[in-house]
């Protein structure tokens, strides 16, 4: 496949990495509590195990976590994302920019399909870096009694389950599938809608336009991928019955959830996911674009 333009014209890679990393850090700090809420809702079954609380929705989860565990519990599991998400986001946007020239599919300029495919491939590759951190994060978020130390969780998982698909890499197929579907929709919808909606001359109105489009694209991508995200959380989190592995593979988890809890259970956590990823994705993508443009203007 020919490359439609000279790849040597690309801006230096460290601009893309730095812009993506800074945008990711800002997004994590602001929206992590919604990630905790989403995880709690997705891993709970149709009934309470061991007398645990059941959350009826995102607001109910917020209230109960705050009431019974304290305000700081809304930031449980934030260490793994900070450690990996900031460089991961930088790497993802770097790979996204590097891959775009290879997915023009004969078009002279990037199309929405170009952005969707490049974003999806970049997200698949990042999954193999992120998966161990996701397993640790979800374990911390799911534990209600106290705050688990990150290194203690890592050592425990390695000691009892190892490094492979039963340990730090459990749920890797679900994460790959979730990331591929979500980012295909996210980058595809954002660039498709952005090309349709006229760009205003005023910079403030243009900023609002981009934020609204990115938020809509994130929300649509959430709907596309929420079932895979639910399966990922159940596989990577604590199992309902201690000593018994109920959720092991993606398709099996989805089938079991549907059979035991019904069709609506496949969309568990969608509200919290949209609340988390909708504005979070908008902040991430728009922040990246503005930081990247700033770095280019300063010729750093």
Automatic annotation (TrEMBL):
<keyword id="KW-1133">Transmembrane helix</keyword>
<dbReference type="Pfam" id="PF00153">
    <property type="entry name" value="Mito_carr"/>
</dbReference>
<dbReference type="InterPro" id="IPR023395">
    <property type="entry name" value="MCP_dom_sf"/>
</dbReference>
<comment type="function">
    <text>Transports dicarboxylates across the inner membranes of mitochondria by a counter-exchange mechanism. Can transport 2-oxoadipate (2-oxohexanedioate), 2-oxoglutarate, adipate (hexanedioate), glutarate, and to a lesser extent, pimelate (heptanedioate), 2-oxopimelate (2-oxoheptanedioate), 2-aminoadipate (2-aminohexanedioate), oxaloacetate, and citrate.</text>
</comment>
<feature type="repeat" description="Solcar">
    <location>
        <begin position="205"/>
        <end position="294"/>
    </location>
</feature>
<keyword id="KW-0496">Mitochondrion</keyword>
<protein>
    <recommendedName>
        <fullName>Mitochondrial 2-oxodicarboxylate carrier</fullName>
    </recommendedName>
</protein>
<feature type="repeat" description="Solcar">
    <location>
        <begin position="11"/>
        <end position="102"/>
    </location>
</feature>
<dbReference type="InterPro" id="IPR051752">
    <property type="entry name" value="Mito_2-oxodicarb_carrier"/>
</dbReference>
<dbReference type="InterPro" id="IPR018108">
    <property type="entry name" value="MCP_transmembrane"/>
</dbReference>
<keyword id="KW-0677">Repeat</keyword>
<feature type="repeat" description="Solcar">
    <location>
        <begin position="110"/>
        <end position="196"/>
    </location>
</feature>
<keyword id="KW-0813">Transport</keyword>
<keyword id="KW-0999">Mitochondrion inner membrane</keyword>
<keyword id="KW-0812">Transmembrane</keyword>
<dbReference type="GO" id="GO:0005743">
    <property type="term" value="C:mitochondrial inner membrane"/>
</dbReference>
<comment type="similarity">
    <text>Belongs to the mitochondrial carrier (TC 2.A.29) family.</text>
</comment>
<keyword id="KW-0472">Membrane</keyword>
